[in-house]
Amino acid sequence: MKHKIYLIAAADPKNGIGIKGKLPWQLKGDMKFFQETTIKTDNANKRNMVVMGRTTWESIPEKHRPLIGRKNVVLSRNKNLKIEGTDVVNSIKDIIKIAEEDERIENIFVIGGAKVYEQFIKLRELTGIYLTRIQKEFKCDAFFPKIPPKLKPEKLNKGEEEGIKYEFILYKQK
Ligand SMILES: NC(=O)c1ccc[n+]([C@@H]2O[C@H](COP(=O)([O-])OP(=O)(O)OC[C@H]3O[C@@H](n4cnc5c(N)ncnc54)[C@H](OP(=O)(O)O)[C@@H]3O)[C@@H](O)[C@H]2O)c1
Predict the structure, then answer these.
(1) Domain 4-173's class?
(2) CA 4 from chain center: how many Å?
(3) Could you say which of 10, 76, 104, 107 is the most buried, measured as most Cβ atoms within 10 Å of its Cβ?
(4) Helix (H) and strand (E) counts for the chain?
């Protein structure tokens, strides 16, 4: 595959990522990191693709979706689902096809949720994982999958908001 493909997520110490279809926390610094990382391209004529499950799409407030400056792709098994301004696809293969047919796509970011991460983390072509490790436990019902040992962590930065510390980590093959 010609594109780099990353997962990007924020998880608590027990890999919790969500509760009742929502994020368990509100961290402006992490949102900013997510925006910047998923929007930034090396080639100014290109843009990135963000891929998400239907549940994650529904968790984004209407006024913030589709996510601006990125090609939004939503995964659903519902063949009748149509979302304005967004591509709805029924399989992972279709995502790769869309990316390969669109010369303007630079990188692919898989932005969740749990069911979608579980499938993409197994991809041989996975380039890396941007993980914000939140150093406080939250009540969660959705979890990030186990990170393959071949991906090694590199600490990028850290932050703190209202007493909640977090670290930005990039896992990638050395
Ligand atoms: N902390 C973070 O970084 C982060 C990031 C994103 C999301 N989240 C949280 O994660 C939770 C949502 O995760 P989730 O696991 O419940 O849902 P999800 O992964 O967002 O979406 C699952 C849905 O995606 C579709 N889907 C998944 N795999 C597919 C495939 N191979 N082919 C076709 N369609 C496919 C199906 O939609 P249909 O049912 O329509 O068929 C499935 O029900 C929420 O709490 C959210 O806030 C956290």
Answers:
(1) alpha beta
(2) 13
(3) 10
(4) 4, 10
CA atoms within 13 Å, Cβ hemisphere of 154: 11
Please give the number of the atom of ligand 1 that sits closest to the Cα of 52.
20
Q: What is the pLDDT of residues 56-65, one digit of tens each?
A: 999 999 999 9
Beta bridge mates, 48: 70
Domain spans, the chain: 4-173
Is the distance from CB of 102 to CB of 71 less than 8 angstroms?
yes
Q: What is the pLDDT of residue 113?
A: 96
Please work out whether the CB of residue 67 comes within 6 Å of at least one atom of ligand 1.
no
Type of residue numbered 4: K
Stretch 34-46: mean pLDDT, rounded?
A: 97
pLDDT tens, residue by residue, 15-27: 999 999 999 999 9
Q: Average model confidence (pLDDT) for the chain?
A: 96
Residue type, 1: M
Which of 76, 94, 123, 143 has the most ligand 1 atoms within 8 A of CB, as the residue to mutate? 76
φ and ψ of 55, to 5 deg = -65, -40
